[in-house]
Amino acid sequence: MSKSKINIISPSNNSESTEIRIGVYLCHCGVNIGGVINMDEMVKFAQKLPNVVIARQYKFYCSDNGQAEIARDIRDGLVNRVVVAACSPRMHESTFRRVLVDEGLNPFYFVQANIREHATWVNMNDPAGAQRIAQDHVRMQVAKARELRALKPQKVMVKPSALIIGAGIAGINTALDLANQGFHVYLVEKEPTIGGHMAQLDKTFPTMDCSSCILTPKMVEISRNPNITVMAYSEIEHVDGYVGNFQVQIRKKAHYVDQLKCTGCGECAQHCPVSVGNEFDLGLSHRKAIYIPFPQAVPGLYTIDMEHCIKCGICASTTVCEPQAINFDDQDEIDTIEVGTIIVATGYDPIDVSNLGNYGYGRFENVITGLEMERNLSSTGPNLGHPVRPSDGTSPKSIVWIQCVGSRDTREGYHPYCSRVCCMYAIKQARQYKEKHPEAQCYIFYIDIRAFGKGYEEFYELASHEYGIKFMRGRLAEIQENPDKSLLIRAEDTFLAQPIEINVDMVVLSIGLETTHDSGKIASMLAIQKSTDGFFMEAHPKLRPVDSLTDGIFIAGVAQGPKDIPDAVSQAKGAAAGAAILMAKGEVEVEPYFSIVQPALCSGCRSCINQCPFGAITFDEILQIAHINPIKCKGCGTCASTCPSNAILQNHFTTKQLMAIIDGVLGDYQV
Predict the structure, then answer these.
(1) CATH numeric code, 595-650
(2) How far is it, in rounded angstroms, from Cα 554 to Cα 265?
(3) Where are the alpha helices (DSSP H) in 291-438?
(4) pLDDT one-digit tens code per residue, 377-434
(5) Cis check: omega of the bond before 323, within 30 degrees of 0
(6) Is the model's pLDDT at 3 over the cut of 70?
(7) Cα distance between residue 194 and residue 288, in whole Å
(8) Is the bond preceding residue 299 a cis peptide, omega within 30 degrees?
(9) d(Cα 110, Cα 251) in Å, to the nearest integer?
(10) Taking 80 as the threshold, does the pLDDT of residue 14 lie above it?
(11) Band of pLDDT at residue 17, cut at 50, 70 and 90
């Protein structure tokens, strides 16, 4: 990537003629801090630190009155550096910086000492220890405040266009919200059609609305919106740039059918002699080598599966394809687009239970997954809405749904988190089956029923009282197959604290959700992080649930974590709003935490380049030195610690500032 043309404001050398006057403001945070340590003693301690001219305490410094007190001291010329000892900077650093800005003081003359999470909350039973730790934190931040430099945030122009990766229900809603505000949207989907997993569902809980009836109009609206460019059967190849100015390479995979000529008439599929398992139906039905995944697909145009195509040429004949759309020489294409924001809505993969041996999936014909049951229940599915036993094609007279398959389990290969949707979709499926077969026995084996959403508890109660679905609280031990292909369920009833056995015709495994198999690749390209559960990590779980830690990139839907359709749509709308705010303003202000390469010291070893988690460092082949993009850089300090020549300075965390903190806590400033 070429060098950034952004003007960098070099940090001040801190040689201001004015005397450094530090104000320390100690927040009680209600009883979170003040209820554990002695705040009067903290004030006395702070007053003795070098350059501290004011030390005050207040119950809530984040309140209007608390902020006004700090502002008054700045306005009266009493202080020109501010240290607030309170909660985490992630909560209120921006709050207090605005106070400084409003009073004409550089916002980077502020530092925050976290004496709640780092002192009182972790030492509730040791007030004396909490007091010592809190004093250390105040001492460290006062020492740093003496070395603070005035910094100037960077402003970057933002292109009024967005890229959305993933075209499930979250991606679709995000695209429509942005397009309807006048922004151009590139909607990229790796499958030949948009719709995601919601297109595979029959009904949605708790209203029992038809999933296709909700989704299909949205898909059609996407295809007709002039502000949306649908790029189905495409994948992200490379991402460069920074907030407001992303350059994205997209691989448009070869369809082998000219998408401009194809009319979607279906004559080619009718004449195709090759039949293979249909992925949309999870292999429960068959499709041709030239295909549309499902009848309501958008785009409704054909693709040739070259892995199974025998190239007989029947579909290419003029008698079959009048528009002459078949092109066996078609090749992948690489398109490059420029966008201002990116929204990741890549969805999820169903947990693969073939590796979880005790459930018998793959060994016993009549053990199926919840998603397979969903396709069986669908009126457009392989059995036209009438589920049957795979072993003999008869309607099962008894079915067991087993919950938490792959979720809420700390064993290797499983996931400890709750997938959130499994309880409700099992109840929905059992209810659907009972509506068609009232005489059937339906059991749900569960650990805990988690009916957390609006109307969910009522839906659960109705299933038990009105439909006669039996709920068994217990953990599965094993499944065995009987000679007649029926299944013996051995489990523990945790209410009665005794083992139970049930013979049933079919078992449905309520599989959970996990991150997509290519999420690591996406995270690497976008320089965004993943949490321990594998899903993309938000900037803050409460205050910034749709922002990533990389400016200009947002996450929506199940890409961020397991959730149901209403929550996925809500988060999609939040991500759209976040992206729209940036694009509507036309520019974004980026904090000046970037690192700077000192050319005279850089040896050109390139050690820093591979270590940068944000892809912010490139190498200038002419000058033979590293170059750091100030917009992509997030000031993590990895490069500065890696550099063997000490050629990299990190704004707001310079070596001098860090050494002042270390000297402070080690006791150079004894009081």
Answers:
(1) 3.30.70.20
(2) 38
(3) 370-377, 422-436
(4) 999 999 999 999 999 999 999 999 999 999 998 888 789 999 999 999 999 999 999 9
(5) no
(6) no
(7) 20
(8) yes
(9) 46
(10) no
(11) very low
**CA nearest neighbour of 210 among 372, 349, 374, 350:** 374
Output phi, psi for 172, to 5 deg.
-65, -45
Tell me: pLDDT of 566 over 60: yes
Q: Minimal CA–CA distance to 81: which of 19, 11, 154, 152?
A: 19
- What radius of gyration do the chain's Cα atoms show? 30
Transcribe 438-459 into DSSP letters: TTSEEEEEES-----STTHHHH
Question: What are the tens digits of pLDDT across the range 639-652?
Answer: 999 999 999 999 99
Give the span between the Cα atoms of 335 and 396, in whole angstroms.
51
- pLDDT, mean of residues 143-162: 94
* Residue 174, token pair as written in the block: 């995000």
Answer whether 547's CB lies under 8 Å from 572's CB. no
Parallel, antiparallel, or unpaired: how do β-strands 303-304 and 290-291 relate? antiparallel
Average pLDDT over residues 244-261: 97
Beta strands in 460-571 (DSSP E): 470-481, 487-493, 498-504, 506-511, 513-514, 553-555
**Which tens digits make up the pLDDT trace of 499-541?**
999 999 999 999 999 999 999 999 999 999 999 999 999 998 9
Q: Which residue has the tokens 């199974």?
A: 308
User: What average pLDDT does the structure give for the chain?
Assistant: 93
- Cα separation, 66 vs 69, whole angstroms: 5
Contact between 234 and 251 under an 8 Å Cβ cutoff? The reply is: yes
Distances (CA, A) of 183 to 226, 342, 461: 10, 13, 45
Q: List the domain boundaries for the chain.
A: 22-153, 349-514, 595-650
- Token pair belonging to 579: 């992206």
Above 90 in pLDDT, residue 164?
Answer: yes
Which tokens belong to 356?
A: 């979880």
The closest alpha carbon to 161, from 587, 547, 580, belongs to 580
Phi, psi of 509 (to 5 degrees): -90, 115
| Enclosing H/E stretch for 129 | helix 127-145
Task: Tell me: pLDDT of 2 over 60.
Answer: no
- At residue 238's C-alpha, the angle toward residues 5 and 157, to 5°, is 30
Q: Is 46 helix (H, G, I), strand (E, B) or coil?
A: helix
520 by DSSP, 3-state: which?
A: helix
Domain 22-153 CATH assignment equals 3.40.50: yes
Query: Which residues, in sequence order, are bridge partners of residue 235?
Result: 251
- Give the residue carrying structure tokens 């669908």: 378
Report DSSP letters for 212-255, one per residue. Answer: HHHHHHHHHHHHH-TTEEEEESEEEEEEEEETTEEEEEEEE---
C-alpha–C-alpha distance, residues 645 and 655, integer Å: 13
- The dihedrals phi and psi of 324, each to the nearest 5 degrees, come to 60, 50
What confidence score (pLDDT) does residue 78 get? Answer: 97
Tell how far CA 42 is from the center of its chain.
41
Query: Which tens digits make up the pLDDT trace of 52-75?
Result: 999 999 999 999 999 999 999 999
**CA 413/CA 512 separation, integer angstroms:** 12
What DSSP designation does 159 have? -
Count of positions (residues) in the chain: 671
What does DSSP assign to residue 20? P
User: What pLDDT, on a 0 to 100 scale, did the predictor assign at position 667?
Assistant: 67
Return the structure tokens found at 468: 């006669």
Find, among 112, 48, 105, 111, the residue nearest to 79 by Cα. 105
pTM, full prediction: 0.86
CATH 3.40.50.150 assigned to domain 349-514? The reply is no
Inter-residue contact 244 to 340 (CB < 8 Å): yes
Angle, CA 438 vertex, CA 434 and CA 439 arms, to 5°? 120
Each residue's pLDDT tens digit, 270-326:
999 999 999 999 999 999 999 999 999 999 999 999 999 999 999 999 999 999 999
